[in-house]
Write a structure and sequence with these properties.
This protein is an alpha/beta fold and 276 residues long. It is built from ten helices and eleven strands. The chain has helices at residues 7-25, 28-32, 57-66, 71-77, 131-141, 159-172, 188-193, 227-238, 243-254, 266-270, and strands at residues 93-94, 108-110, 113-115, 120-124, 147-153, 155-156, 175-178, 183-185, 197-200, 205-208, 262-264. Strands 2, 3, 4, 5, 7, 8, 9, 10 and 11 form a nine-stranded mixed beta sheet that branches. A two-stranded antiparallel ribbon has the order 1-6. Strand 3 and strand 4 (120-124) form a beta hairpin. Helix 3 (57-66) packs across helix 5, helix 5 runs parallel beside helix 6 (159-172) and helix 8 packs across helix 9. It is globular, with a radius of gyration of 28 Å.
Length: 276
């Protein structure tokens, strides 16, 4: 004898059958949407707002990337010059402030660089992996630029790029200038040192501290024999310091922890390199 099916059970059976039929005839895309994979990435980003270009910042960067770099200008970067050197990886030397000084009116902008006339560019902002190419693009478009005014330079988020840029500034024969009220900090000090001639106003400030790698290790955490130390000392020699001054300056910068800044004056810097 077959037991009668309860109305509720029969209703559930019919609903299940209906759902199965609908699913069978649904588009493949709709069925695929039942399985969703979510991937999340946490990124820490430092963003500067340039008040003198509220709407043109991205366009300026695009312009820099779009400018063709000729062979002579590309040679300024000379990436091979650092081949075989220490792998700086995600090493950084960076000291941001509450706000970033503006660069004023400009004929064109290339990343942190603003060309103000045929011979002068101003720099305000940090250095990242794209900055050396932006510098080369600027010189390709404005080959007459011979003076780099450093207004507010917090340093580098990419020390390998920073050292490439320093050598490019040196090869280009630019004069580096920190004007009155100017602030050059961290990795940007190497860029100022790279000038073929260097100038600084009496009230110019130079902030120094240790570099840090992606794991938070600082210069003091690396053995004295590590190639990273020789990389910096070698750079200072290239910029005109003798061996004793190069080592003394490197030791001075690394005596201050990464999360602090020691400010030096124009006269302090004149102890290590000639000023014009």
């Amino acid at each position: 004898m077959v037991s009668p099916v309860a109305p509720a059970a029969l209703l559930r059976t019919l609903l299940v059958a209906l759902f199965a039929a609908l699913l069978a005839f649904a588009p493949a895309q709709a069925r695929a949407q039942q399985l969703v994979t979510i991937t999340t990435t946490v990124t820490t980003t430092v963003t500067w707002v340039d008040d003198d270009a509220p709407d043109a910042g991205d366009a300026d960067a695009d312009e820099a990337d779009a400018v063709a770099v000729d062979d002579d200008t590309a040679a300024l970067l000379d990436d091979a010059a650092v081949a075989g050197a220490a792998d700086l990886g995600a090493t950084r030397r960076y000291a941001p402030s509450a706000g970033l000084a503006t660069r004023g009116p400009a004929e064109a902008r290339f990343g942190p660089f603003a060309v103000v006339d045929g011979t002068t560019a101003r720099m305000s902002g940090d250095v990242d992996g794209a900055t050396p190419r932006q510098f080369a693009a600027m010189l390709a478009a404005f080959p007459g630029v011979k003076r780099l005014e450093m207004i507010d330079c917090p340093g580098s988020l990419d020390e390998e790029a920073n050292l490439i840029l320093a050598r490019a500034i040196r090869r280009a024969g630019l004069e580096t200038v920190v004007p009155s009220g100017g602030s050059v900090r961290s990795g940007a000090v190497e860029l100022w040192l790279a000038g073929s001639t260097r100038r600084a106003a009496p009230d110019a400030e130079f902030g120094v501290h240790s570099w840090a790698d992606e794991y938070g290790r600082e210069a003091k955490d690396y053995p004295a024999s590590d190639p990273v130390h020789a990389e910096y000392i070698g750079l200072y020699r290239e910029m005109g310091m003798d061996d004793a001054h190069a080592r003394a300056f490197y030791a001075l910068t690394n005596a201050t922890p990464f999360d602090q800044v020691r400010y030096l004056t124009r006269d302090d810097m004149a102890r290590f390199v000639p000023l014009n």
